[in-house]
Amino acid sequence: QVPLVESGGGLVQAGGSLTLSCAASGNIVAIEVVGWYRQAPGKQRELVGTITRGGNTHYADSVKGRFTISRDNAKNLAYLQMSSLKPEDTAVYYCNADQVLTRSGVRYDYWGQGTQVTVSS
Fold first, then answer.
1. What is the predicted pLDDT for the residue at 83?
2. Contact assessment for residue 78 and residue 21, using Cβ atoms and an 8 Å cutoff
3. What is the pLDDT of residue 8?
4. Whether the Cβ atoms of residue 53 and residue 118 lie closer than 8 Å to each other
5. Of the residues 23, 81, 96, 101, which has the maximum number of CB atoms within 10 A of its CB?
6. What does the H/E/C string look like for 88-99?
7. Cβ atoms within 10 A of the Cβ of 14, count?
């Protein structure tokens, strides 16, 4: 069982919307900070935004006002709602869990496998 699994990626036209999901495994009890990152070909991985256990959010300037991060702690799910998508949003999107309480102890960093988002012009 992998710790984190992203889903919801796909192909969307510019100006469209897409919502990504991040599911934590049953072994994870709590996550202090969930982060969304993305990496385009030839570019470094960059932060999209974060959400704390208490629901406080932070967004990169490039997505502020267009993307919304949310989480459902009871269901071990986090979401990245994307709207007004631009071609430059095309990337592999990754979910990250920082400071994780598992049923066997504390872990400090988990990454999902990534999900591809492609925005066409």
1. 98
2. yes
3. 97
4. no
5. 96
6. HHCEEEEEEEEE
7. 14
Low-confidence ranges of the chain (pLDDT < 70): 1
C-alpha distances in Å from residue 30, one per residue of 16, 87, 92: 32, 34, 25
DSSP output for 4-16: EEEE--EEEETT-
pLDDT at 1: 63
Q: What tokens appear for 1 in the block?
A: 């069982």
What residue type is 98 in one-letter code? Answer: D
Residue 107's H or E segment, with its range, is strand 105-111
- Where b means 16+ CB within 10 Å and e means fewer, 15-45 reads eeebebbbbbeeebeebeebbbbbeeeeeee
Which amino acid is residue 4, in one-letter code? Answer: L
- What is 31-85 written as a DSSP string? EEEEEEEEE-TTS--EEEEEEETT--EEE-TTTTTTEEEEEEGGGTEEEEEE-S-
